[in-house]
């Protein structure tokens, strides 16, 4: 798989508080509009970004959202990574089950986000933080 992007197509923002979650949603909205995603696809990506930003803040103790406009052949897409240095996820299979939560949430953040995007990657280890990378293609 060959992906291309330029430095102007990438960025990063901190997720340290509730206001940053709102800013992340707004940034994803701008990027999906720039890519001319349909309203449905915009909503799916914004919702996934909101859930993963919240997880980054609540469970990871804060972190960063990185974005990249990507191209694969004639396809264009948006790739987002949510990175934290939190405690990590000890059981990935359990964490991806609908309804499972390690806190007070509904347990839909990871599994729900996975269903809303085309590509989903989860990298984590106990004590080493977590990186969730999602991509939606147009």
Automatic annotation (TrEMBL):
Stored Pfam families: HATPase_c (PF02518)
CDD domains with a match to the protein in the record: HATPase_RsbT-like
Keywords carried by this UniProt record: Kinase, Transferase
EC number(s) per entry: 2.7.11.1
GO terms assigned for molecular function: protein serine/threonine kinase activity
Keyword Kinase: yes
KW GTP-binding (keyword) present: no
Domain Histidine kinase/HSP90-like ATPase: 41-135
Protein origin, superkingdom: Bacteria
Descriptive protein name: Serine/threonine-protein kinase RsbT
Species this chain originates from: Roseateles terrae
């Amino acid at each position: 798989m060959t992906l291309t992007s330029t430095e102007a197509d990438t960025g990063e923002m901190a997720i340290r508080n509730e206001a940053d979650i709102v800013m992340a949603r707004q940034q994803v909205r701008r990027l999906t509009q720039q890519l001319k995603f349909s309203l449905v696809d915009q909503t799916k990506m914004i919702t996934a970004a909101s859930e993963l930003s919240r997880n980054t803040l609540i469970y990871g103790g804060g972190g960063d959202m990185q974005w990249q406009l990507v191209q694969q052949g004639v396809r264009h897409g948006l790739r987002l990574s949510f990175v934290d240095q939190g405690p990590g996820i000890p059981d990935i299979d359990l964490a991806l089950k609908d309804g499972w939560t390690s806190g007070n949430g509904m347990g839909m953040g990871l599994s729900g986000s996975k269903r809303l995007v085309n590509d989903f990657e989860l990298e984590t280890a106990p004590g080493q933080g977590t990186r969730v990378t999602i991509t939606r293609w147009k």
